[in-house]
Amino acid sequence: KKCSLELIKKGTIFNKSNNSFTKSGLHVSREMASKIIDSLDEYTLITVQGRRFSGKTNLFLTICERVSTRDRYFFPSDFTPDVEIVKSIIINRTNGLLLFDSNSVSPELYNYLSESEEVLRRNNHRLVLAINSSDNHMPTKLKTLSFLLPSTFENYALNQQKLAADRYGIPRRYKKESNADYLFDLAKRKTIS
Fold it and tell me: Rounded to an integer, what distance in angstroms lies between the CA atom of residue 127 and that of residue 120?
């Protein structure tokens, strides 16, 4: 319980030092993960737009867990990869899934990616790019599918959260409650500090 609450409070589920996600017992799978995975064969680029704390990184954790047929490369929001590193992956490797969390794509990298559809297709790579709600100007030359990730949970995720909350003896999340609202409620109830 303590570890799960710490992950909620700190919001950091990716450990760069060992290049892995840490999944808490309170993690829920969003329905959007299945929709994204089902779309990977058709679209070179999938964007996921959502405000801060909407669950984009958690969504990427779920996608990485479920997509075992591709090499997965995750770039967290506090790391901007060098264009040459990404270029090397795209050119020298095949069948990759490159997931870029919010703020991890520099303008130079974005320009490179938007001009790389031929090599992305030839080497069977797919990109999933998380963007913040304020990034409303994402022009691209790539075949793109866009999703909007709400800050509130759909029934599928709410049911999972209810079971986890009951297991840990913490308050359940309300239907209209955003992630930030839920964290505030937990802090107010002194469940987390």
Answer: 9
Q: Cα angle vertex 192, ends 183, 50, to 5°?
A: 20
**Helix, strand, coil shares, percent, the chain, to 5:** 40, 20, 40
Least Cα distance to 26 among 190, 179, 130, 149 occurs for: 179
Of 2-6, 63-67, 122-126, 161-165, minimum mean pLDDT range: 2-6
Report the 10 Å Cβ neighbour count for 110: 16
Per residue in 77-117, pLDDT (tens digit) is 999 999 999 999 999 999 999 999 999 999 899 889 988 98
Dist CA 129 CA 105 (whole Å): 8
Cα 134 to its chain centre, rounded Å, is: 17
Q: Report the C-alpha dihedral over residues 142, 145, 148, 149, rounded to 10 degrees.
A: -100
CA–CA dist 1, 134 (Å, integer):
34
